[in-house]
Amino acid sequence: MGAPCALLAASLLLLSCAARACSDIMLSNPDIFEDAVVSARNYDFFDQTADNVGIARVATGTPLARLPVNGCELSPFNGQKAKFGFVCMNILNPQVADEVTKLCPNANMQAGVNYPGVCQDGMNTAGLSVGSLTEQSAGNFPTALNGTAPALNWYDITNFLLSEYATVEEIKKDFEPGKLQLVANNAFLAGIGAAGEIIATRKLHWALHDSTGASAVIEIPADGSRPWIVRDNRLGVLTNTPQLPAHEAAYASWRAGRLAVLPPAEAAVSFVGFCGSLISDALTNVTNDNCNSLSRFTILAQLKESLYDGQANGTMAGGIPNTWYNLNPGYNTTATHQAMMQTILFLNWVTIPGTWPVSNFTGAEEMTILYVRTAAQPNWARYDVEALAEVPGLKNVPLATIQGTQVPFAKEETEALM
């Protein structure tokens, strides 16, 4: 395998494992956020200083290149202009664009010009946010059986949804087998050796949230009954394991009281729900998990349905232990800020200076993205990202080059965003 192919293969491995044990949550409540939507997403074991990780900002009307779909066949969506501008966190922009163009010259993919990279998550100007998560079980990506439907590469789904749709309801109507093919095991990927094997080891699923407060999940049914399915996500949270109905049932059981009391020792020493064993089984609960933890889905769902009471002891409705919280009550003066602080506390494993919550699970390889939509413009709250309207075309910024601009948002700045 040549050096460029080896680099791409290694990068695809990063793509497969980057989202390990990640979580996704959407907060949208007219009483709290007025007309804004907050979508937060964390990545565990993620190298945030890597040169191949960046931010893509795509303006409305930008023609976008798409990955080839069958060998070097161009997707019918190739060159289609973005209906909505968007911001996305991406991987592999230069590597994929360069390597694919070498193998398939007709693709003419240019990083930072017409290709936004492999978008992992993002938000568009209509307030739609999309996040891709890996499933922690081996399995091949599905390929559509209906060869007459327009085809889209698996890794372009996130940027496709962000550029084409405003609401979850629109996606539910269009994103059906028979109307669209999703293709992943393409010749140009399989042809670079190890990368083809890497691709076949993980499946993806997607969290969808929009400005109306609607949420959904695109996932692959375990029974193989169809290539994929779009499920309504009433709770608006998601983890690595799809199986949304099983998650919802487990959460309902916990809410009914059967799993309401956590072992005191566990509550005192751990952020319950982020135990290592949950990486492999996000559905475990206190009855059979060797870490005595509730599932991350249940924890996030409880967060979503609870409100911080603003007291110094950090209590939470529903019996969540006080020891989970390290909030500065002085900065929890508004409902909006309280909810954002809670979200960051649960999803952010990076120490942020100043008055922000600090987690014991800090490390240079971990990061959280918090998207905030306000005035029809998405912002990436971890960094000072320019407004889309001020950035014509497509602009790519390597994450490593903007580490120095990272600043925590103070209370006043947060409220101004909202």
Automatic annotation (TrEMBL):
Keyword check for Hydrolase = yes
What Gene3D superfamilies would the database entry show?
Penicillin V Acylase, Chain A
Write down the superkingdom of origin.
Eukaryota
Question: Which InterPro entries does this entry report, sorted A to Z?
Answer: CBAH/NAAA_C, Ntn_hydrolases_N, Peptidase_C59
The residues covered by the Choloylglycine hydrolase/NAAA C-terminal domain are 114-256
Q: Which UniProt keywords apply?
A: Hydrolase, Signal
Q: Which residues cross the membrane?
A: none
MF term (GO), any: hydrolase activity
Return the Pfam families for the record: CBAH
Q: From the UniProt annotation, give the residues forming the signal peptide.
A: 1-21
Keyword Signal on entry: yes
SUPFAM superfamilies noted in UniProt:
N-terminal nucleophile aminohydrolases (Ntn hydrolases)
> Of which family is this protein a member?
Belongs to the peptidase C59 family.
Protein name in UniProt: Choloylglycine hydrolase
Give the originating organism: Chlorella sorokiniana
